[in-house]
Amino acid sequence: MYEKIPAGFFTAFDRQNSLLYNADDYEERKLSDLQGCFVAEEIRHQMALQENKTVYRVYKKTAPLVAGELLQAVTVLFPGTVNGEFFMTRGHYHIHPKCAEIFFCLGGRGLLLLQKGNETKWVEMKPDVIAYIPAGWGHRTVNTSLAGPLVFIAFWPAVAGQNYQRRLKEPFGKRVFQADRSYVIGDGD
Ligand SMILES: O=P(O)(O)OC[C@H]1O[C@](O)(CO)[C@@H](O)[C@@H]1O
C-alpha cells in the first residue's frame, strides 16, 4: 500500500492492528517492569509472579539521537487495574530540560498526568485530543477504561532522553482509580 514512499520518510498508524507501520523498534512493559508505580506494590508483585500481564507496548520509529531530529512512537496501553488503580506507563522526565513532547490520541480513554515540582496537571485523552507536554514536565499516561486500550502517538526531540529517577524525588501527585463505570483522581505519594 505504501511501496512508493521511501521507508525512511514516513510511518502510518495501522488502525486494524493498533501498531505503527514502518516502526523499527519495539518495547513491551509488563507488570514485572512496573515496580513502585502502583500504591498496592505487593499486589502488583504477586500479579507479576502469576499472570504478568502486558501493561503497554510501544512501537517506535528511530532517528539519529542528535539535535534537530525527532522520534515518534505509538503506545498501546492495555486496560486493567492493580487493586483498583488503573494501568499506567512508568512515567518519566526528559533528561534534556528544553525538550517538549506532543501526544495525539488515536483511540480509547485515559488521562495524561503532568508533573513539575509540586504541581500536577492532567489532560483527558480521547480520540483526536492533541496534548502538549511543555519542556520540564514529567509525564505518565493512564488508561481509564476497562473497555479497551488507550492508543496514542507521541513525537519528541531525539536528544530528550528519559530520566526515571527524578520521579522518585518529584513523584506524580495524582493517582487514578476505578470508580463505578468511571474513574476518580486521588492524591499521589
Ligand atoms: O518511558 P515510559 O514512562 O515507560 O513510557 C513510555 C512512553 O514514553 C513515550 O516515549 C512518550 O514519552 C511513549 O512513547 C511511551 O508512551
UniProtKB/TrEMBL annotation:
Keywords: Gluconeogenesis, Glycolysis, Isomerase. Pathway: Carbohydrate degradation; glycolysis; D-glyceraldehyde 3-phosphate and glycerone phosphate from D-glucose: step 2/4. The keyword Isomerase applies. Its EC number is 5.3.1.9. It catalyses: alpha-D-glucose 6-phosphate = beta-D-fructose 6-phosphate. Pfam families: GPI (PF06560). One of its GO terms (molecular function) is glucose-6-phosphate isomerase activity. GO terms for cellular component: cytoplasm. Residues 29-166 form the Glucose-6-phosphate isomerase prokaryote domain. GO terms for biological process: gluconeogenesis; glycolytic process. InterPro entries: G6P_isomerase_prok (IPR010551), RmlC-like_jellyroll (IPR014710), RmlC_Cupin_sf (IPR011051). Belongs to the archaeal-type GPI family. This is glucose-6-phosphate isomerase. It comes from Lucifera butyrica.
